[in-house]
Amino acid sequence: MAQEPGGAGGSEARDRAESMAALMVSIAGRDRAAFASFFSYYAPRVKSYLRRQRADERIAEDLMQEVMLTVWRKADLFDPTKASVGTWVFTIARNRFIDAMRRQNRPELDPEDPSLAPEAPVPADVGLASRQIGQRVRNAMATLPADQAEVVTLSFLEGIPHSEIADRLSIPLGTVKSRLRLAFVRLRTALEDLR
Known about the structure:
- By secondary structure, the protein is mainly alpha-helical.
- It has helices at residues 10-28, 32-52, 57-74, 85-103, 124-142, 146-157, 162-169, 173-190.
- It is globular, with a radius of gyration of 21 Å.
C-alpha cells in the first residue's frame, strides 16, 4: 500500500493523523465542511505527488479531482485499523495514476516500479532538525531590512527571475542583485554555525 509522501514526526504526526481520522468519520456522514477542510489539506499534496509521477498539469488536476471524489463517495469504507488516512488517500492516488497511464495506451506500468512509490516518510529526528533549521532561517530572514527580505522571498521562495523582480518592484536589475548580496552576507553571518 502507498504511504503519504513526506510527513511530520512525533506528536505532530499523531495529532494530524487523529484529526484526519476524525474528518473521515465526518465525511462518511456527508459533512461538507469536514470535506472542505480535508480537501484543502490533501488536494495540493495529491496533485504534487501526481506531478512527481510525471503526470502533466491537466492530468494531475483531473486525477486529483477523481481522488477527492472517491474519498467523498467511499469515506465510509475507510478502516483506520488497516491504514492511516494518508496511506489510504495516496493509495487511491497511485491507483488512479496507474489506471490513467493504462488508458493512454502507454506501455504497461509495473506497480512495483520504485518511481511510482511515494517518498518514504521523513524520520522524526530528521523532521525535527529540518523544522529547527527552518525556524532559524525564518528568524534570520526577519532580521533583514524589508527591501532585502522582499527580493530574497521573491527570488528563492517564489522562484521569480531577477529581471522579473526588477520589473515587479520597479527597480534596476543591479539593485535587485545588490540587495540579494547584502541579504546573503547577513544570512551567512546569522546561520554560520549551520554549515
